[in-house]
């Protein structure tokens, strides 16, 4: 290899590493909230809020996604005016600071409804910052990448979202195992938020050493920087048409596939199928570990065959297979039906009595652990409220199933099905950065690509856990009813993309 070639190779490697590390940390910050939604809901809302605490917490989580398009406009404009480097350095500081402060917010028992309000404000700041981060990192890498390899190089940025989720799950599981379930639910859940400040500090140090994109530097030297990126992006008919096409033909479908495979899958397994906390996260960790290399594989492949059909194939497979996959999850965890023929043993009951606040009533929980012949275990709790009126009849206990652990073959099958969903994520997400960068000219690229990306992902995709959970809670719905939302959005995007997106390869990024 010639010295100049070696220097160039080192340069692009450094660019990718610096951009990817910061983006990974931002996604880590964003994901730990979603992964801990159940516990956070218990901390932010009254103890008797029940299922509404989870729905309200998911709504706060979704709020961060909804404001991402506004962050795309604000920081996209800055990126096209002053440069890529300093803009997504700023977004990193805002994101990391907000995450750290969430770890310090007192619980509902200490400050009442001020707790969820403060967390909501910080989530909005997170969403705004993330709205500016991705466009900057993807644009920065693409403008350094040589022709013919943009899909390959930008796909490394795409891995950071999943690796950020992987890192967040790893820190959560490690912290919970070290502290114990009780301590983790009490205050230990704050640790993953607090340690993120150390990761952010390292990333800021690395990003400070980065140089501005050579394409943007050349544009600035020639005096061709856009005076009004927002106006040029959305008032010029030809460019606005590309923004709409990118949204409805690509990022909208990509967003719902992404959040179904990596968020709703975990939420469904834990909250609907009642899997054990660690069990659901180990499943997702294994699936992510095996699937992550395919971001680079599909990104690189898109340099050879084009971006379009790889992304649309991922959407089509989601439309076809989501309902059968989630039906299997329900069938595989239907321990009520299995225990009639497969019950092997039942443990001695563990009885817990708790006085209900401000009353003389007691809440008595009797829990047994059951084991099936196929190796599955689960806890069955009978919950009954005893009034202070000794003459009142004792009501029949309400029974609940929780903390299901799967048997070997079923466990592997669930991992395989979650892996398949994450594989679809790599198909739609691996080529998307190169696809978006190549649609727009340099002087308005940051603004133009950021908006459709964050509407597609932040609004349509980010709302998947909330809308799907909400729809499934409606009267007359089934546990699978929520899937119609991602299936419908992916199908619509599939049709629009198939008809209107072309499959040209290696568009220029220097216009």
TrEMBL record:
Bilayer-spanning residue ranges: 27-45, 51-74, 86-105, 111-131, 152-175, 187-206, 242-261, 281-302, 309-329, 411-439, 451-471, 483-501
Q: Give the signal peptide, or none.
A: none
Name of one Pfam family that matches: Sugar_tr
The record's keywords, sorted A to Z, are:
Cell membrane, Membrane, Transmembrane, Transmembrane helix, Transport
Q: What is its main location?
A: membrane
Q: Where is the Major facilitator superfamily (MFS) profile domain?
A: 15-505
Family annotation (InterPro entries): MFS_dom, MFS_sugar_transport-like, MFS_trans_sf, Sugar_transporter_CS
Membrane topology, as annotated: Multi-pass membrane protein
PROSITE patterns referenced in this protein's UniProt entry, alphabetically: MFS, SUGAR_TRANSPORT_2
Subcellular location(s) per record: Cell membrane
Presence of the UniProt keyword NADP in the record: no
Q: Which domain of life is it from?
A: Bacteria
Q: Which SUPFAM superfamilies match?
A: MFS general substrate transporter (SSF103473)
PANTHER family linked to this entry: MAJOR FACILITATOR SUPERFAMILY TRANSPORTER, SHIKIMATE TRANSPORTER
Q: In its UniProt entry, what is this protein called?
A: MHS family MFS transporter
């Amino acid at each position: 290899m010639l010295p100049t070639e070696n220097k160039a190779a080192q340069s692009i490697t450094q660019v990718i590493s610096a951009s990817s590390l910061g983006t990974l940390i931002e996604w880590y910050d964003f994901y730990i909230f979603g992964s801990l939604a159940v516990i956070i809901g218990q901390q932010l809302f009254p103890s008797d809020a029940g299922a509404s605490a989870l729905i309200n917490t998911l709504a706060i989580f979704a709020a961060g996604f909804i404001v991402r398009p506004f962050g795309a406009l604000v920081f996209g404009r800055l990126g096209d005016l002053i440069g890529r480097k300093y803009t997504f350095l700023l977004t990193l500081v805002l994101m990391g600071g907000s995450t750290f402060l969430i770890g310090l917010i007192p619980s509902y028992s200490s400050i009442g409804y001020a707790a969820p309000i403060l967390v909501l404000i910080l989530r909005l700041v997170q969403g705004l910052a993330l709205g500016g981060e991705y466009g900057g990192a993807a644009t920065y890498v693409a403008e350094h990448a040589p022709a013919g390899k943009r899909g390959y190089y930008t796909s490394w940025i795409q891995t950071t979202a999943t690796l950020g989720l992987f890192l967040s799950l790893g820190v959560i599981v490690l912290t919970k195992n070290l502290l114990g379930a009780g301590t983790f639910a009490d205050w230990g859940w704050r640790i993953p938020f607090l340690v993120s400040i150390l990761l952010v500090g390292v990333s800021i140090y690395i990003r400070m050493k980065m140089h501005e994109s050579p394409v943007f530097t050349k544009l600035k030297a020639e005096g061709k920087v856009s005076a009004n990126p927002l106006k040029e992006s959305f008032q010029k008919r030809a460019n606005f048409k590309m923004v709409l096409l990118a949204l409805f033909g690509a990022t909208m479908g990509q967003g719902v596939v992404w959040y179904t495979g990596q968020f709703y899958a975990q939420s469904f397994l834990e909250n609907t199928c009642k899997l054990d906390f660690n069990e659901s996260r180990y499943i997702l960790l294994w699936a992510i570990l095996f699937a992550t290399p395919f971001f680079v594989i599909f990104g690189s492949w898109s340099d050879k065959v084009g971006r379009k059909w790889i992304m649309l194939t991922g959407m089509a497979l989601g439309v076809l297979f989501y309902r059968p996959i989630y039906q299997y999850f329900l069938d595989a965890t239907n321990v009520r039906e299995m225990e009639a023929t497969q019950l092997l043993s039942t443990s001695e009951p563990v009885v817990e009595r708790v006085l209900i606040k401000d009353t003389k009533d007691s809440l008595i929980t009797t829990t047994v652990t059951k084991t099936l012949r196929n190796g599955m275990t689960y806890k069955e709790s009978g919950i009954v409220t005893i009034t202070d009126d000794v003459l009142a009849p004792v009501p029949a206990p309400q029974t609940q199933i929780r903390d299901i652990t799967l048997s070997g073959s079923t466990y592997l099958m669930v991992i395989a099905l979650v892996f398949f969903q994450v594989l679809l994520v790599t198909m739609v997400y691996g080529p998307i950065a190169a696809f978006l960068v190549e649609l727009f000219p340099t002087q308005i690229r940051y603004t133009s690509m950021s908006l459709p990306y964050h509407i597609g992902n932040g609004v349509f995709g980010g709302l998947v856990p909330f809308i799907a959970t909400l729809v499934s809670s409606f009267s007359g719905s089934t546990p699978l009813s929520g899937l119609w939302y991602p299936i419908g959005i992916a199908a619509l995007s599939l049709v629009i993309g198939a008809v209107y997106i072309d499959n040209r390869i290696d568009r220029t990024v220097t216009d």
